[in-house]
Fold this protein.
Amino acid sequence: MDNIGLIGTISIIASGLTIAIGSIGPALGEARALAQALSSIAQQPDEANTITRTLFVGLAMVESTAIYCFVVAIILIFANPFWEHVVSKAGG
Amino acid sequence: MRISPDAIVFFQWGPVSLNATIVFTWCVMALMVLGSWLVTRRLSVETRLSRWQNLLEVLVTGIRDEIREISGQDSWRYLPFVGTLFLFIAVSNLLSIVPGYEPPTGSLSTTAALAACVFVAVPLYGISQKGFSYFAQYVRPSVFMLPFNIMGELSRTLALAVRLFGNVMSGTMIVAILLAITPLIFPIVMQALGLLTGLIQAYIFAILAMVYIAAATRAQRQEKPANQQVKKGAWTNG
């Protein structure tokens, strides 16, 4: 396989693996945080406002790792610097 | 497929280009400024007030109460900055139901600029509240933590920018992909979900900015009441 095909193949496989593996951890973590928050709200319904706000902020923090993986995957597919380098070299 | 509205260029004069991000940012700014100018032109203090004044009052008092709950301080100092962040991001995300509109928060330039505003505002608020003893918190546990504190400051700015960008961009991109696969009803459902995500992301951005500012300004204020309470024995009871 030539260089262009190799880079394309590896980029697509790597981006799929990035989002697949990278979403496992945040999913488990968010589910755990959500379950804890639900049981806390069930125990103390008066504190629901504070718990919900803290939950949102915490979820956003946890989620950012998944967002990083997503951005890396998107860059690998749509704006791959190696791909563009090789294509520009091959073109001229 | 383009991943940000930066790629849509309307005009190009030499090195200066006018892309969709700038144009739609101007649209959002003009809409907000014109709208609030029109509403606040005739304010009334009586019991009868226009519905738009009612809307703005609900918004401002809601943001104010939220800031007061999080920071535990007076809200007037932070209301202009945090409220503007929230309103700008919320309006620019919610307007995506208008056809032909591309949310400017879906471009990394916009979100990086907003995160840079927070990055600059945190030490400014800290210094204005606590003077130059603000810098003592960078060496708080020990002086060896200085590089890690600075790295944390930078990485949370990056996280703010990339989180908002990734969420908005993924929303528009999923709608675009679904339009190619199942164009009938499903994109509408995802767009409704995108509206919810956009509002939550605006909320989270403003809350995180407020939490960072509160963490920079509050440390000194908590020490005094904490000492008094320890003397009274309130904290020893757990």
Summary: The interface with chain B takes residues 50, 53, 56-57, 60-61, 63-64, 67-68, 70-71, 74, 78-79 of chain A (CB under 8 Å). Chain A has one domain: 3-91. Chain A is about 90% helix and 0% strand.
